[in-house]
Design goal:
By secondary structure, the chain is an alpha+beta fold. It has one domain: SGNH hydrolase (Rossmann fold). The chain is built from eleven helices and 19 strands. The strands form four sheets. Strands 2, 4, 5, 7, 10, 11 and 13 form a seven-stranded antiparallel beta sheet that branches. A five-stranded parallel beta sheet has the order 14-1-15-16-19, with helices on both faces. α6 (277-287) packs across α7 (310-324). The longest helix is centred in the last third of the chain and has 20 residues, at 399-418. It is globular, with a radius of gyration of 20 Å. The relative contact order is 0.21.
């Protein structure tokens, strides 16, 4: 591929570097020593549950069939994609480009899942504001061992606002789109005596233990409200230590594509395996994705452990996702390129090969982002491009680089769909 990227000056996120320096955290506010673990009985993570494999069709059949029904006007619900990954995902430039391409062809269902209280964090098409001090668990968010009860919702984090802190979001929308009605699903948990205020547009309410809300595994509550898509949502603590897991924003109609991102700086395949399995799969089931994307491997490319460990880890993670969404299609992304002189770090290709092998056994499609970038040496070339495509940190792309890589990935998927294929 002769050219994927045009550069911008900086990227907003970090993950583990090729030196022993620890990865930057998604939350730098000093944490208190007081535990904020939920006071609920949580089913333990279970590895003995059966792995649910999809019907022996193409690895993207379910997703493509859902898109066909959507395009033909035969579907009233959104087609959802759940994308898990590391800092490349957390930046939402790469995944944002895929979201935009799918929405342009099949309709925009809304921004989907949005984190609350974490920093650094961005979401394409959403303005975010975080004021004051927040405590975020796990600590660090990319942690690979169980912390407290392990209940961290769909996005793998929960945030507690310190006194005086607040969080706000608003979807960037104009004209008729801004006034379109949308669902705002706030995921939270309340220890005894806790409460917070929620303002959505002109509507202000106090949320406490008496507030009627759906409750899922692990004590996660879901309060769903309706307002114009562009309405501003604000969350402020009142009493106690309310925990926030995220907000989902979707249009009521017409049906379109919604792409949820769950990226964590410095994350590896083991990161989501440290979350409580029952609580996580319940949140996946609530979202009911037709496609899940697993995008790890960059940080693994700088580890010293045997790459053969990553196949079983991918198998366990895909198993959990399929227990939440048994009929969903599956796409595994190999790591982006990493430079070594004018070439590449050899372990990138080794990690990709192991993930490719495991993906095939799992009946998942696989795409090597290293190859999609242009293969070995593509990162080094991107650093030297007139319009820089890759960062001097030798790990991340520029925003434009991510966007063009995302456009290339979206084209690969949509070309397969248009050609009637069921795999990549």
């Amino acid at each position: 591929m002769s050219r994927l990227w045009l550069g911008l000056a900086c990227c907003l996120v970090t993950c583990a570097r090729p030196t022993p320096v620890p990865p930057a955290l998604a939350q730098s506010t000093p944490r208190t020593t007081q535990s904020v673990a939920a006071r609920v009985d949580v089913p333990p993570a279970t590895s003995s549950l059966p792995l649910v494999l999809p019907a022996p069709r193409g690895s993207l059949s379910a997703f493509f069939e859902a898109l066909t029904a959507l395009g033909a006007g035969q579907r009233t619900g959104h087609v959802r994609v759940l994308w898990l990954g590391d800092s490349h995902t957390n930046a939402d430039f790469l995944s944002g480009a895929v979201r935009s391409a799918l929405a342009a062809r099949f309709g925009d269902g809304g921004p989907g899942f949005i984190r609350v209280g974490t920093k650094p964090y961005r979401h394409d098409g959403v303005k975010l504001g975080r004021d004051g001090a927040w405590n975020v668990d796990p600590d660090p968010p990319a942690r690979r061992s169980v912390q407290n009860d392990g209940v961290f919702g769909l996005g793998g984090t929960r945030a507690v606002a310190k006194p005086g802190a607040s969080f706000g979001l608003s979807v960037v929308a104009r004209g008729e789109s801004a006034e379109a009605q949308a669902r705002f699903d706030v995921a939270y948990a309340l220890p005894p005596g806790s409460s917070f205020s929620l303002q959505l547009g002109s509507h202000l309410r106090r949320v406490d233990e008496k507030t009627s809300a759906e409750e899922s595994t692990g004590g996660i509550r879901h309060l769903t409200l309706t307002a114009p898509l562009a309405a501003q949502l604000s969350l402020k603590p009142e009493r106690g230590a309310a925990r926030f897991f995220g907000v989902v924003v979707e249009r009521h109609e017409p049906a379109g594509v919604v792409l949820d991102t769950s990226g964590i700086d410095g994350a590896r395949l083991e990161t989501p395996l440290a979350w409580n399995e029952a609580a996580f799969t319940a949140e996946v089931a609530r979202r009911a994705p037709e496609l899940f994307v697993v995008a790890y491997g960059t940080n693994e490319s700088f580890d010293a452990t045997r790459v053969t460990k990553y196949g079983p880890q991918l198998t366990e993670l895909v198993g959990r996702l399929r227990r939440g969404a048994p009929g969903a299609s599956c796409l595994v992304l190999g790591p982006t390129d990493a430079p070594l002189g004018e070439g590449s770090v050899p372990r990138v290709a080794e990690v990709a090969a192991e993930l490719r092998r495991a993906a095939k056994d799992l009946q998942c499609s696989f795409v090597s982002l290293q190859q999609l970038m242009g293969g070995e040496g593509s990162f080094a070339r991107g650093m030297k491009a007139k319009d820089r495509l890759c960062q001097p940190d030798r790990l991340h792309l520029t925003p434009r680089g991510y966007q063009e890589l995302g456009q290339a990935l979206a084209k690969l998927v949509l070309d397969a769909y248009s050609a009637g294929r069921v795999d990549l």
